[in-house]
Each structure stands twice: as C-alpha cells, then as structure tokens.
Amino acid sequence: MTFETAESVTLKIWDRASTHHTLDAMIDELSSRHNAARSSISVTCSGPNTFTLSLNGSAPAL
Length: 62
What we know:
Radius of gyration: 11 Å
Strand order of the largest sheet: 1-2-4-3
C-alpha cells in the first residue's frame, strides 16, 4: 500500500526483512525527484509497519 502527495510518500511495508532496503530506496527516489539532499528527507513511523517519508520545508538543493 502506497499513498503519495507532492512532497511525501506513505508506505505499508509488510516484509520486515526488507524495511531498511525499501526505506533507503524511497529516500533516494524522493530526494532525486525534488533535487534535494538525502538529509532533507524525514522518515516517521506513522503506524504499525507504516512509514511516511517527507521532504523538509526549505530543503537546500544539491
């Protein structure tokens, strides 16, 4: 399950073994899409096995 807005992505990750890899790939995707540094992406656990990745407000471009 994935929900996406202009500056955030919410993922439901069922396989715990792939959590780190999946989040890392989505951080790369979001930072690339917005031409922003990886450090400008916030990851929050928004529910059981549910993570929201969002672009911080005034993130400096690379």
